[in-house]
Design a protein that fits this description.
It is built from four helices and no strands. Helix 2 packs parallel to helix 4 and helix 3 runs antiparallel to helix 4. InterPro entries: DUF6457.
Length: 83
Amino acid sequence: MTLVEWAQQVCAELELSDEIGKSDVDRILDLAKDAAHSVARPAAPLTTYLLGIAVGRGADPAEAAAAVAALAREHASGAADDS
């Protein structure tokens, strides 16, 4: 089973009508990677959950993910500057 197939099954189970595709999965995984590597590993699921809330409230998925990924990278940059 691919991650896209898994995501589609989860959407069906949660009765989410929107289709999720490879670009959506890739966006979420990229954001999770940025959060995990730039902040802390536990930040990955928390960050993606918060992105989901924002998108559910009307935020553009691509714009919101890009903004939060940039925030995570800034955090990493700032942490590197502190050492």
